[in-house]
User: Fold these one by one.
Assistant:
Number 1:
Amino acid sequence: MKNEQRLAGPIIRSSFTIMILAGLVYPLASTGIAQAIMQDKANGSLIYNEQGEVVGSELIGQNFTDPTFFQGRVSAIEYDASGSGSNNYAPSNKDMINRTKETIQTWRELNPETPVSKVPVDLVTDSASGLDPHISVNGALAQVNRISELTGVSKEKLQKLIENNTQGKELGLFGEERVNVLILNLDLQELIN
């Protein structure tokens, strides 16, 4: 009993010390360092419009339903950023097949001149997170005809817009060139207005 009482004091003190270090000091230090060296990323990589209002984040995809704008990837979670992930369906899964067929049908209605075999795969499949804000360069270029027809902006200007918004591979090595759909659409909106 005396041995247990002798140990109680150090156990309680070490528990409080760990709680203060791990629960208060470390989070404050991490937040302070992040704010000092990469404030934009620490605050969510937010994107603002000309009026200074937040219109989204560079890191989270949005659903653009207006056919005059570039469309992003399909989201299995309906672009709900409170969680991420997608159904891990096999290519043979009936729900996956039906959803893909519906997405292709919608694509064909919006872009009737593009044959099914030419529809970029990233426009009819979702990413692992369900929140990917990027599409491939081919995914953006495949939408030029529709957007040009609906907005009156020349195909050449739209192609140049895509070129100007193309981001390279990660570290110059990983992945593929891609386009952030929100940033591309904000630039498109400036062209239209």
Number 2:
Amino acid sequence: MRLATWNVAWFDRLFDDAGQPLHVAGESARYGITRAARLDGIARVMRALDADGIVVVEAPDTGGRRDGVRALERFAAETGLRAREAMIGYPSHTQQEIAFLFDPDRISARHDPRDSARAPRFDLHAGQGETRITWSKPPLELAIETEGAVLRLIGVHAKSKAPHGADDPEEMRRIAVENRRKQIAQCGWLRGRVEDHLDAGDSLVVMGDFNDGPGLDAQERLFGRSGVEIVLGEEAAPGRRLYDPHARLALAHPVAAQPATARFAVPPDWRILSALLDYAMVSPDLCARHPRWRIWHPFDDPDIYADADLRAALLVASDHFPVTLDLDLAGKTRATA
């Protein structure tokens, strides 16, 4: 089974209120790239991924007249994707949903959040006092069945740490620290969910955009560790840790060249910054089955670079690149439905 996670930046901007893809030359939320070009690029990439299930981060909005599931299913039908059914969990109020697009001939999926004493709901206490921190994009918690196996999957879009709205260096630092605090609180909540699933003996995949990574920014030193390390359980016993090889490489060799899943043009000179933000973490039992990971980065993967059409599609589609996880689940039945 192949699972994928991909942040398709502002996917919502590419659909009208009826969920119809907008194959027009208008603004697409990516500078200098039309809606039509982005839709063509996204379709090309998703066909190449050929995934049984895709966690779509920044999926089309659900709210008011807009329906993200309708938009994704129309896009899948139009482009001939076998991952053609969609679902979301709790809607976001940010016009950026977390959705799951899947092949119903290969897997079945249902939204199945669990009650938890460790992480009972989507608002969190962080630090001292009564300050309450919430998930603006509630994680998508799924039960997935395929080939006689049952998995738990949590799709994630954690808080961005970018200091949007800052007018001076001091304000930039204050906002960045506050955003980091929120991001750490969200990841602490998520680790509580992970602990619950490990206690239950579930096979677990946690994947999505964490807006974070080991050693990614200066604020991490104020908090001692990254949100990614918290979710992985780096301070837990080995049998309680999640695994992602790209996170492991970043943790083990912080001054070496790092894998990247995103590239952004950064002001004031708009040079390109690469970052590892997107992950596919697995529980120890799945790790023991030797899964295969791939970052679909057009400049870091020689086979993708050699495919000129796919390379171009990845660059126009989004400022993030997909991460795929291939799992061999033959004979795998250990998980709770």
